[in-house]
Amino acid sequence: MLRTTESLGRVRVAFTDRHGGVTTGPQGSLDLGRTDADPASARENFDRVRRRLGLRRVVAMHQVHGPDVHLVTPDDAAAWPEQGHLGDSVPGQARLPVVDALVAPDLSAVGPVALCVRVADCLPVLLADPVTGAVGAVHAGRVGLLAGVLPAAAAALRALGAGALTAWIGPHVCAACYEVPATMQVEAVAALPALAAETSWGTPSLDLGAAAAAQLTAEGVAVRRVGGCTRTDPDLHSHRRDGARSGRLAGLVWVT
User: Where is this region: Disordered (predicted)?
Assistant: First the structure.
């Protein structure tokens, strides 16, 4: 169920895997992404993760590969429904924020409330300042990296008073596996040189993790890397490996 968990002061982070849930089919039993297709299984899977981590609520987003950031206030967190992470797949609930980054000040006063990002090859990036309790969750694939979603999230956290930020870059498709057309590589590398890479079979690729680390370091953020290539590790979800049938893993960050 949990790929890894880490702590930094009052901050807790976790990344999930494909196991320990109730989803049926080739995507693995712990699919946290198919909320519309199978809301009952998604609800149970999220409930299992919440119980395992001791979370009161999980705030999620509808990710669209853009640079926009959504602020989650303590009032928002207090009013967030128990199944709010399922969005409007639950009758009567509002649609999830249509963004690729969530940020929040210290939410511990309203209980352990986690911000959540879901991926199946893209980068799940979690951000936190353990002193102020400001946290962020970011979905950063090739398009989002080039659009500047990580600097935007860091700036939003600074605006909340965050000082020394730490980022956790979670499991994602590695440079040795992320093959792209040569023209796409040239255009991407022109904007972010750290993206330049080659697959293990000698064709053009992109190194999302290296580019994210370079952007975050330039923003004064300390970077921690959580290992695992989604394409080659059978314990992780991968769209590149499994196509449309792939599930989603989650990265979660909260403050105790």
Answer: 17-42
The C-alpha atoms of residue 134 and residue 158 are separated, in whole angstroms, by 9
Looking up tokens 């300390």 gives 222
Number of CB atoms found within 10 A of residue 224's CB: 14
Residue 243 Ramachandran class (φ > 0 left, ψ -120 to 50 alpha, else beta): left
* pLDDT tens digits, one per residue of 93-136: 999 999 999 999 999 999 999 999 999 999 999 999 999 999 99
Which three-class secondary structure state does DSSP give residue 36? Answer: coil
Task: Note whether 86 and 46 are within 8 A (CB).
Answer: yes
Structural domain for 131, as ranges: 2-255
| CATH code where residue 189 lies | 3.60.140.10
Q: Are strands 101-104 and 123-128 parallel, antiparallel or unpaired?
A: unpaired
- Cα 238-244-249 angle, rounded to 5 deg: 35
Cβ atoms of residues 69 and 156 within 8 Å: yes
Could you report the per-residue pLDDT of 18-49, keeping only the tens digit for each?
A: 999 999 888 899 999 866 667 889 899 999 99
Domain count along the chain: 1
Question: CA-CA distance, 89 to 83, in Å (whole number)?
Answer: 10
